[in-house]
Amino acid sequence: MDSLIEAAKAYANLFDKDYVYMLETNVTLQVYFVPDFFHHLIGLQKLVDIPQVMKGYQNNARYIFKNIISGIITLDDLCKSRYFNDMEARLRHFSQINTLVEFEKIIIEFNPSLISSKIDKADYILFKQSNDNMYLNLFLKEDSANKNKQIPLTFIPCPNDYYTYGQKVINILSMTRRERTGKKNK
Predict the structure, then answer these.
(1) Cα separation, 32 vs 186, whole angstroms
(2) What residue numbers bound the domain in which 71 lies?
(3) How many domains does the chain have?
């Protein structure tokens, strides 16, 4: 199967649930996922030479996600980009998103001044190491429309602890999935 479509379908399995993390500080953190986040999480914004994945007035993130799920946009389309290598690691690791939500540690009070990065809007970083020793970092920020819940900002696999070194790290004691009631996201 096409790994892009596989990653999108794995991501779709996360919808309509809240992922509640209990931290060792007795704080709970709720995270949720919707189709609109997929575009940035896997790095499609880097492929500026592929019109099918460039966001615009009639081509929003949700529409692009639906085109990936339905097979209109495929991995072959993305591979035509001269920038594909800039997002390849994200896609490769993101296909495992259903197990990635089982993070082990979290950065609280993320301090972007400790690194030279444009990621300054994140409040938290959920992270773990993959089987190939990559640090898998899911950056979160508070959802302005849904206070007390976190949304993904970006996902960055990194070969070292660049994003986590020197930050305040807290252990995650448990994670539970809770069905969300109300409006469906699909």
Answers:
(1) 13
(2) 3-179
(3) 1
Q: How far apart are CA 56 and CA 61, in angstroms?
A: 9
- List the beta bridge partners of residue 169: 107
102 belongs to a structural domain: yes
- pLDDT digits over 50-66, tens only? 999 999 888 999 999 99
What digits encode the pLDDT tens for the residues 73-131? 999 999 999 999 999 989 988 877 767 678 777 887 787 778 766 677 788 888 888 88
Q: What is the distance between the alpha carbons of residues 153 and 142, in angstroms, rounded to a whole number?
A: 9
Question: Using an 8 Å Cβ cutoff, are 98 and 10 in contact?
Answer: yes
For residue 104, being part of any structural domain is answered with yes
Does residue 27 fall inside a structural domain? yes
Q: How far is CA 3 from CA 26, 69, 152, in A?
A: 38, 11, 21
Burial class (CB in 10 A: 0-12, 13-18, 19+), 52: middle
Q: Which whole-number Å values give the CA distances from 82 to 23, 57, 77, 87, 88, in the listed order?
A: 41, 24, 11, 11, 12
Residue 87 within any structural domain of the chain: yes
Q: How many residues does the chain have?
A: 186
Question: Which residues does residue 43 pair with via DSSP β-bridges, in sequence order?
Answer: none
